[in-house]
Amino acid sequence: MRPVTGYAAFEPRGQLRPFEFQRRDLRPDDVAVRVTHVGVCHTDLHAVEGLSTGAPPLVPGHEFTGVVSAVGPEVTALRVGDRVAVGNIVDSCGECGPCLAHRESYCVEFPQLTYGGVDRHDGTPTQGAYSTEYVARDAFVHALPDGLDAAAAAPLMCAGITTWSPIRRAGVGPGQTVGMVGAGGLGHLAVKFAKALGAEVVVFTTSPDKVDDARRLGADDVVLLRDGEAMAARAVSLDVVVDTASAAHDLSPLLRTLRLDGRLVLLGLPERLDVETMALLGRELTVSGSGGTDETREMLAFCAEHGITADVEVLPIAEVDTAFRRLAAGDVRWRFVLDVSA
């Protein structure tokens, strides 16, 4: 076994504390990664808040970068010392239709999650990357292209691929107008992707203080959702709307901005969504999941070509609770990343 140290939650809503545990010995197709940077996602916050009383310690972290520290004997694509990145899936059955199509997030046996999941081989719970080392199957460890900063690239492995995948499937490109709802960890990367793909981008937000931020990200227009006149001016003008908002909201005004056969992609998935039935006519509603290994590698190459990374604030991993508190309060532009070596 491989001893590691990390930060774990021991009770619901409790502070994360140092935790020593062990990773498995390498299997033939495994890669061990010395973690250097790990993103702080709302999923991490929710996992800690929802931890059951009496449950085993939970180490969060599912978007990270690092350096290969060891490889199994069957690994050929990666070598010790390579810079790499890993996301929220670290294994899958490899045999079902989605897996054979390299869309492993839809694995019929359910993919193995970076943390909060179950190892497909030995049934042990998976622990995340708020730790000094991680061990994953080689197919899910991606080479990090030269030129991408390791800290700023970490969120690409969750927020990045979550937005990249549906944007690409929607065929976003020159001549299209794309709406982005919410300028947060997901939304700010969606804006960068759509602009780099050649689309005109309109950001919708409820926060006047995010207008300037959205324009700095590259938005061609920013519309306040509560401004009825501005929303009416955007009626039937968009080809795609990517909704990253996690709070309950009404979809009807957004649907009215879409042209015939326009597409609304839901990524935030709040607990409740309201919609008027008539607003659905002539539109396509898509609930999208994250991408697979092929799309992840495509995204990383595109980011390297266009110089795209997340806008991050880096904190030492010992300040993880500060990151959690500020994330819960919405006090971040746009993603926290923990420096594991600090």
Polypeptide structure, described:
By secondary structure, this protein is α/β, with parallel strands linked by helices. The protein folds into 2 domains: 2-158 and 309-339, Medium-chain alcohol dehydrogenases, catalytic domain (Quinone Oxidoreductase, Chain A, domain 1, Alpha-Beta Complex), CATH 3.90.180.10; 160-287, NAD(P)-binding Rossmann-like Domain (Rossmann fold), CATH 3.40.50.720. Helix content is 23%, strand content 30%. The chain contains 10 helices and 19 strands. It has helices spanning 42-49, 97-100, 150-153, 159-169, 185-196, 211-217, 228-233, 252-255, 293-306, 320-328; strands at residues 2-9, 16-23, 30-40, 64-71, 83-86, 89-91, 112-113, 133-137, 141-143, 177-181, 200-205, 221-224, 238-243, 249-250, 258-266, 273-274, 283-287, 312-316, 335-339. Helix 4 (159-169) packs across helix 5 (185-196). The longest helix has 14 residues, at 293-306. 47% of the residues are buried.
Question: Using only CA atoms, what is the Rg?
Answer: 20 Å
Q: CATH topology of the largest domain, which one?
A: Quinone Oxidoreductase, Chain A, domain 1
CATH superfamily of the largest domain: Medium-chain alcohol dehydrogenases, catalytic domain
Count the domains. 2
Average pLDDT figure = 93
Low-confidence stretches: none
Biggest sheet details: 7 strands, mixed
What characteristic shape results from the CA principal axes? Answer: globular
Order of helices and strands: EEEHEEEHEEEHHEHEHEHEEHEEEHEHE
What is the CATH-assigned architecture of the largest domain? Alpha-Beta Complex
Q: What is the CATH first-level class name of the largest domain?
A: Alpha Beta
Q: Note the gap between the termini.
A: 25 Å
Q: Strand percentage, roughly?
A: 25-35%
Q: How many DSSP-defined strands?
A: 19
